[in-house]
Amino acid sequence: MSTDTDTPHTEIFDSLPYYDDDLQKFPYLKEKVEQELARELKAPQTLHPRVPPTVELFADNPFLKAELERVGSNQAFTPLDSLRYSLPAPTSTPATDEDWKVALDNAHAQLQHQRIRQQNLALLQNYGPNAFRIQNYLLEATVKQTEKTLEELKDLIVEVNRERKNTQDRIGKQLTTLENRWTELISSVLQIEMANVALDAEIERLNKKEADLAEL
């Protein structure tokens, strides 16, 4: 286990997956790990310290935020109100002057709306193609930059994993050497203890023999 102390007051523990292969060597250990994981009551409520905070989309635009929530919840789009684009005649018979005035005002509003639409279409026809070309150029540049950044991040991930593997392989060899040395020292200590026990038994036997000879 290694401890990352780059973040103050936070300890991050990392395993050595390129070196620790006990789960592959001993299947029963893997079963015990799975049993321990199955006994977990709940997932941790806090994210990893290095996970960036959640980005809130359209925080400054409530309309787009509400539309995003609508799409996320699979709600149907609110149908457009087409009543205001119609030209209803007065419903009362006979119609009063006020009814005809309301209908006439609505007709004037519809006429002005159609004029504005014609102006917008004319402006779009004159300036729209170039605006779309510029927008497409900017989007393509953004896509290329994003793809380039993505490739750089992938290369960085590969490099980090390669460096991590090399480091763990190097440290793993040192750990294996130290473990073998520790095993040898433990074995030597056990052999010395067994030799001491044998010597104690031999000394006790000789002392007993000496005592027996002294009695004779």
TrEMBL record:
UniProt keywords, alphabetically: Coiled coil, mRNA processing, mRNA splicing, Nucleus, Spliceosome
Subcellular location: Nucleus
Protein name as it appears in the record: Breast carcinoma amplified sequence 2
Coiled coil: 136-216
Pfam family, one: BCAS2
Family, similarity comment: Belongs to the SPF27 family.
GO biological process: mRNA processing; RNA splicing
Gene Ontology annotations for the cellular component aspect, listed alphabetically: catalytic step 2 spliceosome; precatalytic spliceosome; Prp19 complex
Top-rank taxon, per record: Eukaryota
